[in-house]
Amino acid sequence: MGILESSTHSSSQVAINEIERQRALMIDLHDLVLPKLDPCSGQAKLVQQLFQDIFNSSSKVISFLELGDNSEKQANRIEYKRTHGKNNMESHVLEEETKEVGNKRRKNVKHIGSVVTEAPHFDGYQWKKYGQKWISKAKHSRSYYRCASSKGQGCLATKTVQQKETNGGGTVRLFNVDYYGQHVCKKDGIIHPYVAKTARHSAPIVNHNQSSISTFVNNDVHRIQDESYENLFTVPDMSEYLIDIEMAGALEITSMNLPLISEDIWA
DNA sequence: AGGATTTGACCCTA
DNA sequence: TAGGGTCAAATCCT
């Protein structure tokens, strides 16, 4: 690795770290400012909108910086395709494509967080499945999803869903959900019709792999009828889904956004 | 017919 | 070199 390359890489990482620190400070500021405002006032709504916009903006910056770090590896991959690919047209298409979307290899994309849940698909975003694999030594296959806005808006967020191995043969199925990459897509603002009513607590999130320190929390949860399994899930507000502030930022959730519910069903 | 899912192959990373 | 993430053709579904 050349000196120039390594210095570019570390500069990007420093910038990402600084932006993430700013986001943490932003949340502190949010908590300080919001309680002092009348929640019904236009001023409070404006302040929340401003916080939201800043969060969205920083998410995009982080995504671009992460792509920048991967540019050289991506160039190598294009070169490999050019010399080993089935034909030159295919390589050309890949090259054109990667100019737009960056590195497709997820291992270079930052791991945002993970949750253990009974309802792995109800996380407020629309996902498109692009693969499924049996992982060695695992009892259940792993499914791969990318944000449904990956084409339209170039959102690079992905997630993997894998059923946990249960000991004791309990009837409850638990899933590990790992999130990668920041969402840069805009939500459409449509409340999912499956959200029938709200209740309190009894969320399906069983365990967070880190302590939940998200401060954009209200305690409402949403009961959701799953079409294919006819199970009634109780899904928390998105902020309870998040394992940490970073993930809250990645999914761009604040208390002012009601959750959108994915229509996905279990694979 | 077009979108979603499945599945085997490809290939990157550790 | 094995494991696992992604691609893309085949297949399914609406």
From TrEMBL:
<keyword id="KW-0804">Transcription</keyword>
<dbReference type="GO" id="GO:0005634">
    <property type="term" value="C:nucleus"/>
</dbReference>
<keyword id="KW-0238">DNA-binding</keyword>
<feature type="domain" description="WRKY">
    <location>
        <begin position="123"/>
        <end position="167"/>
    </location>
</feature>
<dbReference type="InterPro" id="IPR036576">
    <property type="entry name" value="WRKY_dom_sf"/>
</dbReference>
<dbReference type="Pfam" id="PF03106">
    <property type="entry name" value="WRKY"/>
</dbReference>
<dbReference type="InterPro" id="IPR044810">
    <property type="entry name" value="WRKY_plant"/>
</dbReference>
<keyword id="KW-0805">Transcription regulation</keyword>
<protein>
    <recommendedName>
        <fullName>WRKY domain-containing protein</fullName>
    </recommendedName>
</protein>
<dbReference type="InterPro" id="IPR003657">
    <property type="entry name" value="WRKY_dom"/>
</dbReference>
<keyword id="KW-0539">Nucleus</keyword>
<dbReference type="GO" id="GO:0003677">
    <property type="term" value="F:DNA binding"/>
</dbReference>
